[in-house]
Sequence to fold (1173 residues):
Amino acid sequence: MRLKQINLAGFKSFVDPTHIPVPGQLVGIVGPNGCGKSNVIDAVRWVLGETSARHLRGETMQDVLFNGSGQRQAVNRASVELVFDNSLGKAGGQWASYAEISVRRVLNRDADSSYYINNIHVRRRDVADIFLGTGLGSRAYAIVEQGMISRVIEAKPEELRVFLEEAAGVSKYRERRRETELRLRDTRDNLLRVEDIRQELDKQLEHLQSQAEVATRYHELQGQLRNTQHLLWLLRRQEAAAQRARHAREIERLGLELEAETTRLREIENRLEGMRAQHYRASDEVQAAQGAFYESNAETARLEQEIAHQRENRHRVEREITELQTQLEQDRGQIAAAQAELREWQGSLSEAAERVAKTEEAVQAEAGKLPVAEETFRATRNRHDELRRALALAEQGLEVEQTKRAHAVQLLEQLGQRAQRLQDERDALEPTDAERLARLDDEISSLEATLRAARESLAALEAELPQAEQAAREADAALEAGVQRMSGLEARLHALSQLQERLAHGANTEGWLDAHGLDQSPRLWQSIRIEAGWEDALEAVLRERLNAIALEHLTQTETWFADPPPGKIAVYALSNVASGTAQAWSGYEPLHRYVSCTDPRIEAAVGEWLHQVYIVPSASDGLAARGELPAGAMLVTRDGHAFMRHSVSFHAPDTELHGVLSRQREIEELEGTMDAVRGEVASLREQAGLADQEVGKRRARLDELRQTISDHQQQGHATQMEALRLAQINERVAERTRQIADELAEVEAQTQAADETGSSAGARSAELRVEATELGNQVGLANDLYRRSETVLDLQRRALQEARDAAQQALFSQHTCNNKINDIDNSIKAVSESVERLSGTLVARQQELGRYDEASLQEQLQKALALRAEREQTLARARDAQEGMEGQLKSADEERHACEQKLEPLREKVADTRLKEQEARLNEAQFAQQLVEAAAAEEELAASLEKGTRPSALQAEIGRLNEEISALGAVNLAALEELQAARERKDYLDAQSRDLTEAMATLEDAIRRIDRETRERLLQTFDEVNRHFSELFPALFGGGNARLLLTGEEILDAGIQVTAQPPGKKNTSIHLLSGGEKALTALALVFSLFQLNPAPFCLLDEVDAPLDDHNTGRFCDLVKKMSQQSQFLFISHNKITMEVGEQLLGITMQEPGVSRVVAVDIEEAMKLSEEAA
Fold:
């Protein structure tokens, strides 16, 4: 696959949709610092599935969203898309058929990331699967960002192994192994659960079996209970019907009696109704008289109230007139007092104006003196401040010089101590024993030779092992086939034997035969043989006699007629008399010639039964020869069809004896075959055992060789590490000796400088001390002058403030007089207006008082009182007439009430009888409904109901059955169904257990196969990468050597350690290299991985930053060479690196915080590089 284009939108600084084309094999990205170039690397890493915000230079995954700038708002969606050219079909899996593949990742601020391949929503794992084993991924070696070079070199051995796995293409194997282990763990868990369920199910089956027996008994008792309950309901329904008829007759009698009393009550009520009408008329007259009386009362009360109201208003007006006259006198007095006060305040105003003029003159005089005092104060204060600053500078300089001198003394003491420590350390340094180092090198060489020989033996034995394993598998397969054949034969023989055994002991006659001692007697078909093909013919002739039992004498059957057998049984007598030889008839052979007997004593009976029975080749021959047969003779075909002179019998396999002879012959043949098969299986089992032993021996030898190799590798590794440790010690001793010499020279130079600094600081301190003393005296004199001028200024300011306060007080008094005069004028005007208003009100109240007239109202009141007395008498007469009518009405009502009381018992009796009749009807309907709902056969129940049966007896039977049901305890009514379901589930779980066991074996074998393939590929890849690394390192450095070492014996778990020695250096650790040397070493390692497994493209982010021009040129030559196999997209500020690029893309940030892509040429790139530098 080749990268064609990178599309970004909303990702970090690329807020606008941005398209970055990747047209060639070497594409450079240039631009000034901070323009967003490294965001391109982050975008590629993010779309390939990176989930760590730290590796994307952020704190949270939300940091990849554009967060806004001075002119732009934050966005809520980020999208990055990689477009690949897959025209060669190198993509794996289902995407291989696509000529172009688009991988896109989208993140919303309020949601998780979404992944798409060719606009199809996929999982993150699906994206990772495309690049497994290609060197691409969120943490793979094909993306080399800023700082990653140092991390590669300084990475832990386990972290470096990840790069080797990616280069070997085994990351997909490791992922597959992890999935297989997960499935294996799930399978084990499932098997454990299945086994637990099976054990529980066994217990449940036992429990359900007992519950099923209880449920069966429960159903029986419930049947009896239902039948008894139905009988009880039928009997109760019959009794309810009889009660209903009896109550209906009683209701009819009581109804007639109730009707007579009701007629009498109606007559009384009619008479009472007339009396009530008269009473209503009397009540209307009372109400009319009462209304007229109430009207007179209302008129009288109105007149009395109007007279009282008039008197109250008169008194109120008189009070108001008195109050108005008093208020007028008070207002006139208030006006006179205000006019006098006004004249007093006008005099005070003239005096206040004179004081204001005098105080203003005093303020102007004091204000003229203040500027002179202020100018004098500023001059003395400035002089005082200048002298104090000069004094402070002198004191500060003195303190600095004293500090320098003290520091110089302290530094001289420290330098002396450091020099002594360095001399002591130099004297203590000792190199290691050179002879011991040489012995270790010899041991390493010897171990390597031993390891090579052991590996050769191991390879030869591993090549032989598959052949032995194949032979063992072939032997096992042959043995399995033989065992299966033997098992099939045994199953067939067992089935045929069981069938014959059932025929020998008939189910319906077994007990009878056992009682007569014939259960072990052989049957006829067990003692005769017939040629193949004629079994149906013999079965058609003998029929049930094939199952006949042999007896010594037929007289044994005399007692059987009193106790005949329950089924068909034929017997025959054994005889030593030989039967005659059967003769042919008209060319047709007798059937007897094809029959042989294992016991000669049965030949007489068989000969008798087969006498004159001949065989014909076909049915047409039998029909043709039938008419010439002698009396009692029979022709029979192979199919069993029989022909006699006057009849034809068609044979059909309609009895259980059908095939008994052919089965017997097959049983004998199977017994003979089984012996031969058992011998073959024993031989095959022996061969399989020998093959397994041979495989076991070879595997044991392989394990022994592997252990030997592992021991030697471990010993060699320990020896190498010891030799490396000793060499590192020597190098560290030499390096430390040189460092101590340099440090001692540096200490001597620092000591001389510190001595000179201390002397200079002492001389300068003396000069500054004299200068500080003189300045201190001058500061004292200036301070006295400053304090005196400050006092004079304060006195002048207080005098000016006192004059201003007096002027302010005079002006305030003037304003107070003006305000008071205005208030008095306003008050006089208001009181004058009040006097005028009160005078008008007084005249109006005097006029109102003259309008009140009480005499006419008193005359109207006397007339109203006389009319009320007359109407009161009319009301009394109407009430007397009403009371007399009420007495008559009460007597008639008492008579009606007595009649109703006599009717009430009759009604209650009728109602009670009707309730009883209704109750009987409901009981009858209820029991009938219960019988219908229970689907009871009423005719059968009525027939089974004995005469004289009482409900109490049936109820007692129901109680007994309920007690028996209760005695059963808790009954699982679904026990029978649950028992069947549990058995079916047990069968299913047994099959599932077998399947899970087989699946576990398959998964474990898959894990072993994955480990073997992974180990082989890792070993091969390690050797290849080590070889490339040792070749590329000298090419980049112009010499030196480097290699990779395993930190363990098992490569599946071992880490990788890098050792590198540039030309002319014997460093013992990679950490002793400079930054540039580390960068070149890391590049050599990454490019070694590339040469073995070139990734589709490689991203390099300023990896040339630590390199000088010379090393940068070597780096560029190597990149240009490797670009023939992979695309390279690099970010750089180095003009040498820029010259290598076939195309250059510029990243700018003209708008703050927003990155854009621009096209650049080489000259522009040079300028950008120089600006960045």
